[in-house]
Amino acid sequence: MTSVLMVQPLLALIAGIVILIVPRILNYVIAAYLILIGLAGLFPHLFGG
Fold it and tell me: Transmembrane stretches, by residue range (predicted)?
């Protein structure tokens, strides 16, 4: 069962990856931020938190 708390970081991670696929100068900064937030949010769920 997917937790609501897990959806937001997952969306941030996916958005970051999609932005990296279509790069612009500012988009690299935004993509890096979204990926970091996504990983930070998913980290506790990945290891049974």
Answer: 6-22, 29-47
Q: How would you write 3-48 as a 3-class SS string?
A: CHHHHHHHHHHHHHHHHHHCCCHHHHHHHHHHHHHHHHHHHHHHCC
pLDDT of residue 42 exceeding 60: yes
Which DSSP state fits 2?
A: -
- At 10-38, the pLDDT tens digits run 888 888 888 888 777 677 878 889 999 99
C-alpha to C-alpha distances, 45 to 1, 5, 13, 20, nearest whole angstrom:
12, 10, 14, 24
